[in-house]
Amino acid sequence: MQSEPLLELHEINRRYGGVVAVKDVTLDLRTGEICGLLGPNGAGKTTLVNLISGFTTPSSGRIRYRGKDIGRVGHTTRSRMGLVRTFQHARSFATMTVRESMSVAGTVPADHHRWFGLRGLTSIGTSDRTAHDLESLLERFGLTGWRDHPVASLPYGVKKTLGIAMAMMMEPQLLMLDEPAAGLNTSETTRLQGLVEDIRDLGVTVIVIEHNVPFILEICDRVAVMDNGELIAHAPPDEVMRDERVIGAYLGAA
Amino acid sequence: MLVETIFAGLFLASIYALAAFGLAIVYGVLHVLNFAHGALLTLSAYLVFQLVTSGWPFWGAIIAVTVVAAGIGVLLELFLFRRVIDRPLSGLIISIGLIGIIDSLVAVGWGPDPRALPRMVDGSMTVFGGIIAKDRVLVVVIAIVGLGLAQLAITRAPWGKLLRATAEDREAAAMQGIPVLRVRTAAFVVGAGLAAVAGGIIGTTLPVEPGLGDNLILKAFIVIIVGGVGSTGGTLLGAAVVGLAEALSISYMPTSTAQLVPLAVLIVILLTRPQGIAGTLTERV
Amino acid sequence: MTASGRLRGRLQVEIFWPLLLAVPVVASGTLQHYQWAVNGVIWGLWALSLNIVWGYAGQLSVAQLALGGVAGYTTTLLISLHDVNLVLAVLAGVGTAVLCSLLLGLASLRLHGFYFTILSVSFAAVFVTLVTNSDTAGRTAGLLVDRGRLPVVDIGGLRWDLDSGSGGFFALALVVFMAMHALAVLLRECPAGRAMFAVRDDEALASSLGIRGATIKILSFALSAVVASVAGILQIYSFRLIVPEFFSFHEALLSLLLLVVAGLGYTYAPAIGAVVYVVLYQAAPVEGEWRVGLLGVFVILIVLFFPDGIAGGIRLLARRASSLVGRAARWSGRSTARSDYAE
Fold first, then answer.
1. The complex's ipTM?
2. Containing domain of residue A151, as a range?
């Protein structure tokens, strides 16, 4: 277990005109932990994920990933560095099958950040290693049966799982899941919890944004709670549950 | 002569505005780039020519052809474009296919030689020291009055508001109880009708030849984009800008460079302010 | 058979099947049929160029013919004005077109969708205007391509006069088409091609998976420019003439029609487009002026009933056929066929 945090946020701010979406957030993430991100609607959770993944740039503050300042690094490069995210609304490649989508996600790990992405782009078919990774991920996520099914007609829950599987093809070190349980039924949600723990066991550090509080409390090592753009708590689940500000935020928003 | 140049600019602006207005309405409401608009314009010019040569009075011919074109517009919307309402690409291809069909009709009907519609009014007049042809003045007046009224109708009249609401957001309009499908048909009718009127009028000042619509359609695109997609007022503004720019450059530059000026205006607008002078960014750029 | 062995087998079929289309042409052997077939190949190449940049990468560019024109004029002028060797002139032509395509590519990073398409229209219009107003380029009358005689190729006893209208030039055009077609098939299978489809489908998602949209788009423009150059140069050698008309907006729309009707995005669509062009536009027993109208009617019918084009229609029929076969096999009790929804 490394002593240095995998991810450090230092006084991150994001302003949109007069509105402060994220205010002075400072937190760190240890390698191998599952960190939950909770908060009422509009608390700034997705903005924070956008800031970490690089889809938005901070108005001020520092982000360090694996010891390096990545403030100026674009989101595409960040994903190549192992900082991968999924999307809230099950984005997908509408004209492809499950296998083809996974294959696209596997394009980059094979070519090692060089030549603006052109090296390794000429190999035909899929390399044996990528094909193997693809099949084993499909199996792990229970998607083997859907392998040649067109993505456009997948059930919603399967689409979301595919999104996570595709992110895993990137061989991430830090995976951010944006509301992975939204739209899933109870049994699917339980299955998802097992999946997240499996992912952690594979050596990936995970941040999970969720509205589903029990989901978070059951699997997370630490939970970060946001309200009105501020980080109001960051502690193991039992402590967070008892935190007055947290209770206030949720009761206030209820 | 500056007066003559400025007037030439107004004249070009009028022609472009006449050609583009109907296209702007159809694109705004249906979000289909009706490439066939130019072909419809050409066909109308030929039909007006045919009627006038057979003895019809000019304005009678225009009215008759406009009615026919409007009817064609209804048929096109009901039997073709409505079927592909959710597939804009298919709509585009259909409109291109229509160009082919209309081109064939024109070629078989009248052959490749240019025809001429008699001018609406003969002679010339002197304005501020410049000599300008009377029929061109009439074209400018018709454009300003006619399109000005149309623009007022779109901004003030109740059905104009329906048109704009449907253009902005079809589903939201439907939820507010607007008969979206009927508005679409209306837009098409208006667009086709305007193409016909434009064809008839333009045919009196430019040669009626198979390429008439093609040349105008490119200018129509430029005018609509420069003015702002989704804003008919913008189209008028764009026509003024492009027309004047073109006339000024023809006066003061060699022809080859002058022809590039409208294109240059378009490229600059696309790269700096794609929503156009008057446009609001409803389309994702 | 291993997975990669199956893949190789399938790819070989995909790459070589268009040769079958050449059989009826060679069998009839008339000068007119050869000319038609050459025109078909050229239009297939225009469609192929558009397929890479639009079908694969999702950028509707109306400037492909203009790119071909750039290559054509560059090659012709280098040969007639500076006596450059044919091969070098062709390479220079292709190179110039690729450079111009980079401009387009850069523009595609700033503008999307409809706005980019209009920019490509203006790019093409600028090209046509420049050439029409240039004395060196021959204005509207164009230039004769009378220099640069194509070689006679001797392979094991067979002589191919590549300049000949009785098959030699067709053979050249065919070889060129097969090469470009192979490029398109291989591109689809390789990571760069997959990345293009991904960028077309959802660029944000693709970029979150490490795919650089900018690189991929520019690559697609450059590759499409190579194909367009080849099409343009073949065209001018076929007609021994280069005029701005060849690369006009009207003609560009025709290439768009052919590709969509054949099936946007499918690798075999350009070959199908070539056939459609030959059958409807050349061979059809109607008067010349009705040809474009006939094509228009055909296109509208296809688009109404087969939104995915002819290739899409074939795929639908193939799926129905295979599920019928599957059902029949199951019914007769001897199947290992998978069900449609395995879970």
1. 0.89
2. 7-253
